[in-house]
Amino acid sequence: MTAPLLSVRGLTVDYRVGRGRLRAVDHVDLDLEQGETLAVIGESGSGKSTIASALLRLVPVAGGSVEFDGLDWASLRGAALRRERHRMQFVPQDAGSSLDPRWRVRESVAEPLVVAGKPLRQAREQAGTMLDRVGLEGPLQERFPHQLSGGQRQRVAIARALVSRPRLVICDEAVSALDVSLQAEIVNLLVELRAERDLTYVFITHDIALLPYVADRVGVLYLGQVVESGPARDVLVDPQHPYTQGLLSSLPGAHAAGGADRPVRGEIPDPANPPTGCRFHPRCPVAVDGCPEFEPAAVAVSPAHSAACHLLGPQSETPGRTADPLVPPPSSLLRKARS
Amino acid sequence: MGGDDLVVDHLSVVFRSRTGTHAAVRDASFEVGAGRMVGLVGESGSGKTATGLALLGLHDPATTTVGGRARFGDVDLLGLSPAAADRLRGSAVGMIFQDPMTALNPLLTIGTQVSETIRAHEGLDRRAARDKAIEVLARVGMPDPAGRYRRYPHELSGGLRQRAMIAAAIACRPRLLVADEPTTALDLTIQAQILRLLRTLCDEEGMSVLLITHDLGAVGAVCDDVVTMYAGEVVEIGPTTRVLDQPRHPYTARLMAARPRVDGWGEHLDVIPGRVPSPSASPEGCLFRPRCREARDECVEPQKLVALGTSRSVRCVRAADLHDSGVAAGAGIR
Q1: Residue ranges per domain, chain A?
Q2: Which of A216, A225, A226, A312 is the most exposed place for a label (fewest CB within 10 A)?
Q3: Which of A257, A266, A267 comes nearest B262 by C-beta?
Q4: Shortest CB distance from A233 goes to which of B44, B265, B334?
Q5: Could you give phi then psi for residue A230, rounded to 5 degrees?
Q6: Closest chain B C-alpha to A279 CA, distance in angstroms
Q7: What stretches of A236-296 adopt beta strand conformation (E)?
Q8: What range defines the domain where residue B130 resides?
Q9: How far is CA B193 from CA A280, B5, B160, in A?
Q10: What is the mean predicted confidence (pLDDT) over B279-287?
Q11: Each residue of A166-220: pLDDT tens digit?
Q12: Could you tell me which CATH class the domain A6-219 is placed in?
């Protein structure tokens, strides 16, 4: 078996807030094979976009390693980093604010090629072909961003990301701002392009219902930590962590899909001041005595599927949702919260 | 407490500009029964927001002509003087919008904005209004209402800001609440909480709610009835469970089919080809015809909203045949 295209170990990102420090991403591990899509889901404030920024090398990484496409990605600097950046590209949520309003969209799509040293004429030609492919043809390519609809601007953003032939594309809420029909169009386009160009995606979204259409694997993020990860189908059909179960219950129509009716209550706490022990315990419907004190370790429920919850233990006969909330977590699984 | 019905009758909204007139809403008729929650759905450009603004009397008469009738109880909503409309909004009729950051005043605390409504409409003194505002903040599920009373909008999360806006809207116990995309900008977890809150207020206060949204999922989760709009026209009306399980208008069916479903493994999202026509470039006959898989020759004729049984109406000449052939590609929301 070949090495994964992307292998992240212990990724940690800190932001400075006033005199203090906010740990936005806390020891995150991710693995992604060539041609796969990894969905990262979670609420606002879970650290999803910070992971994107860290992978794209837009914010400094406080710890951990990132191996990408055979490179020690996290330690590339300066000219070496600039030379390799084309391998990993980005599709933002709101293409309207990421495109230069004074440039015709074809110029914006050609820019990454020009920066990489392509002659202008060739770059424009290639940009035109790329825009044709994403469904923005002819005179539309000569328009300015404000003259396009939201869906069309999103197509421009995709063309701009793909024109330099990246290996990995990070889509950060790339379809979240669109009407349902447009959202379907853009999702289908991304899926087609993945097959056609042998792409690998990190698909960041808060909409768990999109997963069946795009994702091979999923990582569920809560306050900077991965609380559950595994093959997308396993995680959605048999969610193990109470947070994942709550996200599924929050979907309209959750009952039809067989989810437990236990939507997540309250709001995500301030990441600058995360709760002790299991960070989810203040919102958890099945929290027990030990949860505020001890940080849960990831427990494998199958070779590829794991979740970090005290109620999942080799000792409990019926792991997961059926665990009796009155039984304290098996002490062998508990490790003292990091101070 | 017998509530009032909202009856919208042949409502039209026409925008006038230098380039001509554009009908954003044409001949829209529907009802919101007392204490019921009705979802008004459609894509961008369907006329749903223009309908909501017309009911609230918020269109600028200098650029917009509103026609038809809209009655709430015995009040003629479209015939009010600006001063009377002002009195009505915030008392009998409340409203909330998608983005609380722009609807709330950034310079005033949450508490001031809620108690201001109470003082304006109920003539309470400052202290009594303050106590009542804290009560209302607690009612909408604001944690630590007395503390949050002194906070400014930017100090709250998106979900709490939306709760604050709902508090300001319901402070004077309106009997009708118009909610325009109140959950669109929020996380799914918070969306579910806000929708539940609206449903609870509807049930416990007997308030009627018109929920304007593009998300059929939100409608399926909380609404009693659905009104689908397309290109300014009402195309389907009926009880939520029946419309979503068995849509009779192809547009409603296609909207359902385009929704991602958490059990949609191995499926493709079903795209509706084309776009909503602009008001100035509407096709002949059925407005949905150019995008419709079911279109036939007879669809070139203008379509009427036709009653199907007692509680449903559909603007599609093929509604009866489509019923049997199973246009309902989008079952399974409930």
Answers
A1: 6-219, 261-336
A2: A216
A3: A257
A4: B265
A5: 160, -175
A6: 17
A7: 294-295
A8: 101-173
A9: 17, 26, 11
A10: 85
A11: 999 999 999 988 888 899 999 999 999 999 999 999 999 999 999 999 999 999 9
A12: alpha beta
pLDDT at B20 (0 to 100): 85
Answer for the pair A193, A162: CB distance below 8 angstroms, yes or no: yes
DSSP A31-51: EE-TT-EEEEE--TTSSHHHH
- What is the secondary structure of A247-258 as a DSSP string? HHHTSTTTTTTT
CA distance linking residue A113 with residue A124, whole number of Å: 9
Is B65 within a domain?
Answer: no
- A302–chain B nearest CA distance, Å: 20
Residue A180 is nearest to which of B221, B258, B263, comparing CB atoms?
B258
Provide the domain count of chain B. 1
Classify residue B292: in a domain, yes or no: no
B159: which chain A residues are within 8 Å (Cβ-Cβ)?
267
- Proportion of chain B in helix, strand, coil states, percent, rounded to 5: 40, 25, 40
DSSP codes of every residue in A120-141: HHHHHHHHHHHHHHTT--GGGG
For the stretch B286-299, pLDDT in tens is: 999 999 998 989 89
Indicate yes or no: CB of B262 within 8 angstroms of CB of A266.
no
Interface residue B214 vs chain A (CB under 8 A): yes
- CB-nearest to B270 from A44, A184, A208 is A184
State phi, psi for B289 to the nearest 5 degrees.
-50, -45
Measure CB to CB from residue A250 to each of B44, B189, B215 and give the nearest one.
B189
Give Cα separations from B179 to A36, A134, B148 (angstroms). Answer: 40, 36, 23
Question: Is residue B42's pLDDT more than 80?
Answer: yes
Classify strands A71-72 and B37-41 as parallel, antiparallel or unpaired.
Answer: unpaired
Written as one letter, the residue type at B241 is T
- What are B236's two structure tokens? 């389907």
Task: Compare all CA atoms of chain B with the CA of A207 and give the residue at the minimum distance.
Answer: B188
Give phi and psi for B265, each to the nearest 5.
Answer: -60, 135
Which pLDDT band holds residue B332 (cuts at 50, 70, 90)?
Answer: very low
Does residue B204 register a pLDDT over 80? yes
Q: DSSP code of B287?
A: T
Mutant choice from B181, B188, B196, B254 vs A, greatest count of A C-beta within 10 A: B188
Is B89 contained in some domain?
no
Q: Do B220 and A253 touch (CB under 8 A)?
A: yes
Best-predicted range by mean pLDDT (A55-69, B79-93, B300-314): A55-69
Structure tokens at A81: 């980093």
Residue B316 falls within a domain, yes or no? no
Q: Do B215 and A263 touch (CB under 8 A)?
A: no
Complex-level ipTM beyond the 0.85 threshold: no
> For position B26, what pLDDT does the model report?
93
Report the pLDDT value the prediction gives residue B45, as an integer from 0 to 100: 86
For residue B93, list its beta bridge partners. Answer: B89, B176
Strands A294-295 and A71-72: what pairing? unpaired
